[in-house]
Structures are given as structure tokens and as C-alpha cells.
Write a structure and sequence with these properties.
There is one protein chain. Helix content is about 35%, strand content about 20%. It has helices spanning about 30-40, 55-60, 60-70, and strands spanning about 5-10, 10-15, 25, 50. The protein has a two-stranded antiparallel sheet. Strands 3-4 form a two-stranded parallel ribbon. The radius of gyration is 14 Å and the shape is globular. The two termini are about 25 Å apart. About 10% of the residues are buried.
Length: about 80
């Protein structure tokens, strides 16, 4: 998503501000999936999140709730 992140041993450095760009990403777990959704909402362009089942189980009606506050988000089954 074009972020500027560096890993040094056990420290993570996030350098910003950096504009995110929409990409296809994978939700590896509940929290990572929620972060991908938030990053996708502020990114330029379209973000596709694969393996989103964790998020749908962990956050009740997340798509509806985000849509109610203006997010342009849809769920597509493949």
C-alpha cells in the first residue's frame, strides 16, 4: 500500500506521512484484517481484502456499521 516502514531487529519504524494506495491485501487474522480495512478506507483507489472471514466473525455487522458512517465498502463472495 506504499507505506514507508522499516524493521530493525525488534523495532518497527513507520515514517510518514505517506499516502496509501489501494491494493489487494490478505487479512491474516482478526486485528490485521481490521487494520487492512482502515488502511483501505483512507487509501487512494480500490483496496481488495482477501481472507476477510476472521474480521466478519470478530466484528459484528462491520460492513453495515462502516457503511452507515459513509464508508464505500462491499462484500463479494468468490
Amino acid at each position: 500500500m506504499s507505506s514507508n516502514i522499516e524493521l530493525d531487529e525488534q523495532k518497527l519504524y513507520i515514517n510518514g506521512p505517506t499516502k496509501f494506495k489501494g491494493k489487494t491485501v490478505v487479512a491474516t487474522d482478526l486485528r490485521a484484517g481490521a487494520c487492512m480495512i482502515l488502511a483501505g478506507l483512507i487509501a487512494d483507489g480500490e483496496t481488495v481484502i482477501e481472507s476477510v472471514e476472521h474480521v466478519l466473525r470478530g466484528y459484528e455487522n462491520i460492513i453495515e456499521k462502516l457503511s452507515n458512517v459513509g464508508a464505500k465498502i462491499t462484500l463479494e463472495e468468490i
